[in-house]
Batch of 4 targets.
Target 1
Amino acid sequence: MGRPLKTAKNNGTIDTGFTSTTSGVVGGNTGQTGYQVLPRVKIGSQAEANGYIIRQKGKSKFLVGSVTSIQDEDIAANASYVITSLSNTDWTALGASSVPVAGEIFTATKSGAGLTTNGVVNLVGVCTLVNVANASLTSNTMTVECTYANAAQFKSKTLSNHHVTNFSDVKYIADFVTANASTTPYPTVTVANA
C-alpha cells in the first residue's frame, strides 16, 4: 500500500512528521484548520455529500465521514457515526463509550427516535475510490479530484500521503499547493482540499 495517508486529529494537530501545506497530503475532518483531502462520498443510502477521510483501509479504501449533520433523534440502529456535538445527549445509551467525547466513532445499538436532546453526529462508513462523475456515486463509493499542471482534472484510483495514481495507473506526487508537470521522478498534481 505504500505509506498510508496521515490524518489530522480532532485537536487540529497532525500525525508526527507531516506538514500539510507542502509536499504531501493529509486526511482528517475538513472543518479543522489547515488543508485536508476533500472527498465526495456516498455512505450507504445517505445522499452523496462532501466528506472527510478518517483512516485509510487500503490503497483505494477509506473509513470516511460525511459532513452532513444528523441530529441524535435521527440515529439509526446498527449504523456507525462520529460524534460532532455532545450537547446533552446520553451517548452511552446509544452505544458510545462510558465517557463519550466529540470525535468518538461508535456503532449505534439502538435508534435515537423520540430523543429530545440536541447532540449531532456524522455518518461514518468504508468507501472505495471510483472513476465516476460526482452525483453518480453508488453506495459506499467515493471520489477524490486531482488537478494536473494544465488544469485538467482526474479522479484518483489510489491515494497515500505522498502519491496518487489515476485510473490509467499513472503515478503522481500528491500535493495541496501547486501542480507541476516537470517535477521528478513524477509530475505533481493538486489534490482537492478544504
Note: The two ends are 25 Å apart (CA to CA).
Target 2
Amino acid sequence: MPDLIFIILLVFIASLIGDFITYFLAKRFSEKIKNYLQRFKWYTKNEAKTHKSLKEHEFSFVFFSRFMVAGASPVVNYLYGFEKLNQKKFILAVILGETVYSVGYPLIGYLFKDTWNELVNSVQYTILSIVLILFAIYVCYKILKFYKKRKKNNENLSKT
C-alpha cells in the first residue's frame, strides 16, 4: 500500500508540473504565434468561434481532458494558454482532473492487478465500439444532409 500512495503522489506532482509548464509556455509565446497564424485564412476565419467555444466550456473541457481522452491534456494546455483564458479556472480544473487521474488509474491497477489484461481489453473494446457507433451516426447524418441539400437544389432547378 505505501507503494501505491507513492505512485499516486508521483503521478499527481509530475502531471501538474507538465500541465503548468505547457500552459505557461503557450501563454508566454501566444502573441508571436498569433501574429504568425494571422497569415492563414483558416485561422482568421475560425479564431473568434474557437475562442468562444473554449470560453463557454472552459472548466469542463480542461477537467475531462485530464483523464477521459488519452493524450488530450497537453493539447488542451497549449490551447488554453494560447488563448489566455482564465488562469484560476484552469488551475482548479487541472488540480481536480489530475486528482481523478492520479488516484483513479493506479487504484484500478492495484485493485484489478490479477485481471488487468481482461479489464483493459474490455474497456478498449467498449470505447472502440462507442467511437465506431458515433462515427457511423455522424456519417449517416452527413449523407442525409447531403441528399436533402441535393434534393432542394434539384427542386429549385426544376422551378426555373
Note: Residues 65 and 73 are 5 Å apart (CA to CA).
Target 3
Amino acid sequence: MTILSYGQQWIKTYCDTGGYGGVFAVETYDKGFLIGGSANTGTKNSILYKTDVNGKVLWQRIIGTSGSNTNIQAICTAPDGGCAIVGEISTSNSLNEAFLLKLNACGEMEWSKRFHVSASIISNHICLMKDGGFVFNLGENANDLVYSGWVYRCDEFGNFVWTIHLSYLPKNLFVDDSDNVIVTGYHFSQFDFYHGQDNTLIPYNSVKILKLDSIGKTLLSGDQTDYQNLGAQTIPAPGGNYLTCGSDAGNSNNYDLHLFLWDYKGSLIRNIALIDPSYTNSPVDMIIGSDSNYIVLAMHIGNNSLNYNMKIMKISNDTIESSSAPFNFGFNVYPSTLRATSDGKYIISGSVKNGNSDIGIYAAKINSSLQLDTFYSAKYSYDYLCNNIQDTGTILLDNAPEKNLAINEQKEMNQTFSIYPDPARDFISLSYSGLSDSRVQFSLYNILGVNVISSGYSADKNGNLNQQIGLQGIPSGCYIVELVQGNKRLLKKVMIEK
C-alpha cells in the first residue's frame, strides 16, 4: 500500500497480490471515493473500497456468490449517498447472469436483482436518471463474432420500466441535462472483400450512436460505416451536435484515436484522426471537463504489446491538444474509467498489469492541468451518514431475485400485445389485454423517430383494447407502434407495404 506524505503525487494501488484488476473509481458525497475491482483468478469475487479524499481505505466490502465468479463492471452514485452497481455472474454450468445491486452510504445492501442473459457480458455502464432511477447497458458476446446488447431503464428500487434490445454492442452510456440517454456502441461483421473466396473474410466494424428519451423513445440514430471503426463514448457538443471518441484498427492491431462529430439528426459531420505511427492510442472513456472542454482517457501501448500506460488528452474546438507525448501515470497500467470530481479535477482508475495478468487496482488523481495531483492536508469528516461502520464485510448475491429479463419478461409482455396484419397495408389492428380503465396513448413512429399518427383510446371494463387504425397516406417502411398508459410503455415493430 502507498505510504502517504503530503505533497506526494496522488497515486494509489490496492490488492497488490490479490489478483484484482481495477474497474472504476468515483467520488462520493463526502469527497472520498468508491474504488472497485474484480478478480480474474483465485478468489473469483469483486471488492469495493470506500476511501477518504486521499485514498485511505475507510471500509471495504467483498461482493460475490457461493461458488461463482462475480465481476463488478460499473457504478454510479445515488442521491442518498449510496450507489448502484452492475456486473456479471459466471456460473459453473456456463449460464451467465447479470446483477444489479443497490448499496447505502454505509456499504450495506438495500436490494439486488439477478437475471439470465444469453451470452457472455462484455461491456457495461450505468447512469443516474433525474427521478432517482437508473439506466444501464449490457453487451453480449455470443462467440467473439456476434455482438448484441440491451439498454435497461429501472426505477430507484430496481423495478424495470423499459428495455430495448440492440443488434450491436452498446459500449457506453451518457445521460444529458435533459434526461436523454446517449448510447455509444459498434457493430461487428465480416466483409467478403473478394466476393466468395473463403480466405478473404476480414473484420468490419461500424460506430453506432443512439439517443433515447427518458421513456425509451428513439430521438436520433447515427452510423459511421467506415472500415474498422470502434466507438467508446459519446457526449453532447456545441450547436446541438454530438462528439464520439473511438478508434480504428490498422495493421498489426495498432489503434489510432478518432473523433466522430455528428449533427442533431445523427448524420456524421466529420471524422478526425490522431495517427501516431509509433504507438497505439485506444480511447477508453471521455467526459466534459471542468473548463467545458473534453477530456479523453486512452490506453497507450508502446513498442511492446504488454507495455500498457495511460494517456490523457484535452479536446478543444474538436481539436486534440496536448497530444505530442503520452502522459504516463504508472508503468503497465491498463486504464478503465475517468470521472470528474467536485474540486474541478479528475479521478482515474485502472489495472496494474504483470504481462496479461491483473495484479492490483490502480487509482490516480489528476489536476485541471492534466498532471498528477498531490494529497490533501486539510481535515475532512468522512461517512457522516453512518455510525460504527464495519471495516470489512461480505455481500452475497445468492438470494437476489432471479429473472430471465432478456427473454421471459419480453415474451410475457408480447403475449398481451399483438398487431395484425404484419406486414400491413390499409390498416393495423391492435389487441392488448391487462390494461386499467384510464386512457391509452397510441403513437406510430417512422424509422427516423418522427410521429406520423397519434391518438388516445380507452380499454373496455375488462381491461382489453381492440382498435383498428387506418394507414391512409402512410408510405411503405418499418414503423414502431407505441402504447403508453401511466408508467407502462410497450413497443412493437410493424412493416407497412403499399
Note: The radius of gyration is 24 Å.
Target 4
Amino acid sequence: MQKISHNEWPEIVFGSSESAQSQAIRRAVKTGKLHKIAPKLYTSNFKETPASVVARNCYQILGEFFPSAVISHRSALEGGVHDNAIILTYKYTKKISLPGLQIRLISGHGAAAGDTPFMSELFMASRARALLENLTQSRGHEEIKKNLSRHQIEEMLDKLCRIYGEEELNHLRDQARQLAKILHLEKEFKLLEKIISAMLGSQSIKSLHSENARARAMGKPFDAPRLELFSALFAFLKKEILPLKKQAIHSTQQLHNLAFFEAYFSNYIEGTEFAVDEAADIIFHHKLTPQRPQDAHDITATFQIVANTAEMNKTPKSADELITLLKKRHNILMETRNDKQPGVFKTIANRVGNTIFVLPELMEGTFLKAFSLYENLDPGIARAIFMMFLVSEIHPFLDGNGRIARMMMNAELVHTGECRIIIPTVFREDYLLALRQLSRNNVADGYVRMLLRAQAFTHSFDFSEYQKALQQLTASHAFLEPHEGKLTF
C-alpha cells in the first residue's frame, strides 16, 4: 500500500480503500493539488498531459492495478508497451483505456517456468511462452491485436537462428514443449514445432510464410536488413538518370598510367602508403622493397588486375559468376598474405567500428538475392555504383574488401567503355562518410553523388603522359590528406 505525505504528493497517486487516505485525496482534488486522470488514478503533475504522465509511469500503474499480471502475447515479444498498447495475461478478460494507453487483459495462467519478474509486481513471459501465445487464433478485427502475424514470428525465429544458431531454435522448441502442457497450448506447440522443423530442413517448406524462413530452410539464408539497403539503393538508381562519361583508351601507356593511379590511390586508402614516386618505381621499374615486400605486392597485384583489359571487361552473368570473380581477383590481390586466406570467403564475422558485416553463413544467400537487383539495373555507371556498395557492405573477405569493391566497380565501367572512378587520398573522408551514411542511415543520394563527383574528377584528366597526369593530380590536391586540403578540378 502506498504511503502518502499530504504535504508533498507524488506524481502518481492511487485511490485507496482506507478512509483517511481516501478523504485526503478528495481534499487534495478540491484544493487543486491533485487531479483525476482515470478511475482510482490521480496526479500532482498539472504541467503535462495525462497521456504523458501515464506513459512515464505505465508499469507502476499496471503493477498496482493488476498485480502479478504477465506481459504476454505480442507485448512480450515487443518488449512491453508498443504503439500505446499492451497485452496482459490476468485473472479475467477485459479491455481498459487510460490516457494514451490501451490495455487488453486476457484470462489465463499466471507466471510459469521461464517467466521473469518485471517492474512493479509484473512478470514478463518467456520467449517460448510468448511464441506459443502468438500462435493462438485471433479474431479478424481486433481493436488491440494480441498476436504478431505468422510472417513476423517466422522472421523472428530466423533472426534468432542467424544470431544464436540452430541450437537456439531447438532450445526454444524444448521449452515450449514443456510449457504447452501447463498452458494448455498443445495445438499451438504442434504448429511451432512444424515451423521450426521446416526452417531446420526436416519438414516441407510449403508451410512457411516468410521469405527469410524459406531461404533458410533451402540452405540459402540471407541478411534481410542488408537486402533492404540494397533494395533502397536499387530503387534510387532505377529512377535516376545518371550522366554518361565515356573514356576511350588510345594507347597502352595511357591505360598503364590510369591503372597506376587507380591502384596507388586504392591501396593508399586502405593504409598501404607509399610516396607516389616510390610506388611508380615499384610498378614501372620493378624496384625491390626489401623492407615492405607484402605492401609492394599489394600495389603491384592491384595494378596487374586493373591494367588487364581482358580481366576488367569481365562482369558477372549470375550470382555464381560474381562469387567466382570475387574469389579470383582476391586470390591475385592477397597472394602473399596467407594469413588473410586469399581467394577464400571469411569464416568468421568481421566488423569496422560498430558495423558488423554480413555473417559468413548468410553471404551466399545475400549475394543471390542482391544479384537479381544488380541485373535489373542498366549496365555501366548504375551497376558500378551498386556493385561497389554490394561488395563493401557484405565484406566477404578477411581483408582487401575495399580494394576488391573498387575493382568490381571499375570493371563494370570498363565493360561499357565508361570512365573509371578513382578515389584520391584527399577525397577519402568524403568517400567513407558517404558509405557510412548509406550503410547506417539508408541515405543513397550522398553516396551516389560522391561517386559521380569522383568520376567527373577522373574524367577531367589526360592520362596519356605520366608526368602531365601527376602534375594535374598534384595541382588538384589529390595526394593531400583530407585535413590538409579539398579536392579541386
Note: The first helix runs from residue 19 to 30.
